């Protein structure tokens, strides 16, 4: 195969071919990449290509997080802050415990392994669903809730995973006050670093009118916020998300010309397209059918667990979060439940488990199995579900509740 450059070139060629093919085939681009990756892996058309936690967490994730947060409308986040905040914090914690409990009781997993799996699989990654939402002109509020939740719950899941992993490996006794204090410190620290980096970069950008320099500064913000947060042991995910939101909503408005803003938008749209293409293709390439078959019962129980936990969180909290002037309708609740896909972050966390961790292989394969299920089953059925809700229940689930008018 040659050097890594050759391999990356081939993967990009495959991604481009799939992107052209889906223009004629009604299937989400990201899902098509996973299917093609599966076919390549099963038939051995390429040498083994391995995802590593460093590749996902240090190279891919900052770019994806920054692009999404750069384009996230702060006003819409403010309007839905309670729903997003509850789903991305309390919802992730509850989901982790429900998943862990089901796996501990039904799959015979140790409590520590079940909690680790619950933490790393609770973060949603609905890139393909959001692509469908945008194409069908889904109501912007619903789009903002799902996208905002997916950005912020990544940070919660990573923090929970790291806390549980440190307890397991240090053998320290569990303490609620100490754990909650550590959780808050890591979260607040990540938000603080992101705010400082984003605000500082916004001020620097205001002194220049050079699109290449300003583009370079946005890149430094994306990766600098991540690395700085990692260095001081706070949430790197939240650091990037907050920095991107500050720069995108404040720095762009106060320090960037319209032409520069469009230039930066185009660059990050392209960067996210390339990175997400490689991620979804690599997901398909990771699958090892013999191991999936070996752990099929545990994967099946894990799928039931994530669906049950999501169902409880969404349908449990939505009645409490619905306001009279901005209700979360039954149709929206169903889409929030079924649209909660899992993706690259879960796989990166699974791959980052220490080699000496007992049951590491099982957790990795279970994670791959769950990610594949959510991408291929939920990802492929979300569009028919949206269209069904828009047509079959014009009163309760009418199109105006789900789709913006064209």
Q: Short description, anyone?
A:
By secondary structure, this protein is an all-alpha fold. It contains 19 helices and no strands. The protein is globular, with a radius of gyration of 21 Å.
Task: Write structural notes for this entry.
There is one protein chain. The chain is mainly α and 406 residues long. The chain has a single domain, classed as Up-down Bundle (Na+/H+ antiporter like fold). 78% of the residues lie in helices and 0% in strands. The chain contains 19 helices and no strands. It has helices at residues 4-21, 29-42, 53-70, 74-79, 81-88, 90-106, 111-121, 127-135, 140-170, 176-205, 211-231, 236-255, 258-286, 289-294, 296-321, 330-338, 344-351, 360-392, 399-402. Helix 2 runs parallel beside helix 13 (258-286), helix 5 (81-88) runs parallel beside helix 9 (140-170) and helix 9 crosses helix 10. The longest helix has 33 residues, at 360-392. The radius of gyration is 21 Å and the shape is globular. The model is unreliable at 395-400 (pLDDT under 50).
Features:
globular, Na+/H+ antiporter like fold, mainly alpha, 406 residues, 19 helices
How are the SSEs ordered, and which strands pair?
Blueprint: H1 4-21, H2 29-42, H3 53-70, H4 74-79, H5 81-88, H6 90-106, H7 111-121, H8 127-135, H9 140-170, H10 176-205, H11 211-231, H12 236-255, H13 258-286, H14 289-294, H15 296-321, H16 330-338, H17 344-351, H18 360-392, H19 399-402
